[in-house]
Amino acid sequence: MASERNYRVVLNDEEQYSIWPVDRDLPHGWREEGTTGDKEKCLTHIDEVWTDMRPQSLRESLAQAGRES
Question: Which CATH architecture group holds 7-68?
Fold first, then answer.
């Protein structure tokens, strides 16, 4: 019986989330968020915490534009 692969939740500088296998090195530009587990657990966590899917730079730009109006 194959063992279930474990993942970790990762995010990049734009605060975009993904999952990555725990046994592989992280790709450049991504860092660990702190959650690990099976795929379902990690994806459920992302669904709960990633409520605004716009990249951070866009959110900041729109907030700045709102202050200038």
Answer: Alpha-Beta Complex (3.90)
